[in-house]
Predict the structure.
Amino acid sequence: MLEIEAANVRVGAVAESKEDAIRQVAALLARSGCIVSGGYAESMLAREKVANTYLGKGVAIPHGMPQDRELIRRTGIAVLQVPDGVAWQPGDTARLIIGIAARADEHLGILGNLTGLLYDDEMVARLAITPDPQEVVAALSAPRVDAPLSEPGEPRRGDGAPRHAPGQRQEPGRAAAARRQGAGAGADLGART
């Protein structure tokens, strides 16, 4: 699985706007040699015009357009933590901006961990304010080990998604809607990011 480098995690950042946050996370990716400086940031901004990359619970995953893969030198992930938040869409404030530059599928393990992390409100809140980049790296790198539960008679899904007891909320907000609709923030991150 792709590993997040602590040097690609910036804690305590301030972003004036969504565009500013995306440019800052793209700069982290450029500084580490993952992307061509400048061009990929523009691709990430273009993606925002066609798909909302806000997952919910203060987490956004900006990434570039599929046709701009040539701007990616190597797959990488960067995290911009904005403790005071930045307006992402009307009514949505992002505090963890996870920039993704993927040439292939190497990032899917971390994306899976992130999806599982969205079930842990306490951890997401802590990551949004921690002064320790290594805590962010550890949380995004650790696989989620939620006990799989299913309704009686319900076939077990093989997608690794956490299961919940009856009566509990099944999916975290927009990420679930994107999976159900097959579009949006994380649905097209497979082979086309």
